[in-house]
Input
Amino acid sequence: MHIYYGDFCAVRDVDMKVPTNKITAIIGPSGCGKSTVLRCFNRMNDLISSARIEGRVLFQGQNIYDADVDPVEVRRRIGMVFQKPNPFPKTIYENVAWGTRINGFRGDMDEMVERALRSAALWEEVKDKLQQSALGLSGGQQQRLCIARAIAVEPEIILMDEPASALDPIATLRIEDLMKELSEKYTIIVVTHNMQQAARISDFTAFFSVDDRRNGNLIEFDDTEKIFTNPGQKRTEDYITGRFG
Output
């Protein structure tokens, strides 16, 4: 897969198979295309007029970029949590219920909201203030609310773009613990600048870098333990050990 913005090839030669029910971390220096690649996995780049891809992204055997595929349905099944918490200016309850409601959910909404908040390890903290504004929550709570909102529509994959970079160390650890719990049910792909975080939480790691033409490219993809202890590429080793990047 190659990813372009206009005539510029932002990322080239991406070929990786993401394991199910595991955490895959994407690491690399700034500007190597980590977030661009992540957004390709649920067609978020469609929202950028100059963006296009060459190649395929296969999900359950189908190319999600085929003409007959509905990108809205792709994004329901492949959810996303962004770098900065972005709760809606609505109540905590409505933040969780919103996505399922517009998708035509006909079940018990109260039960669904509680289940999603429990899954995001937030229920005990907010169960008595569900009708209060989500904007009154702390940054870490807002991010867990956004995770609850993503999983409420029952996706199969959750994409996370540096979900803890704006949080303090305690909130970061809670998000990391939550990711480990969620990986028992969901496939998680996370972009992170924090190599210690990648080493702590992920099962697999993809290392991206930038070539002389400023194109991002995938250098190595393997078990996280191997990437961090015995990488197959010198560029990976140099980045992991801090010799470049």
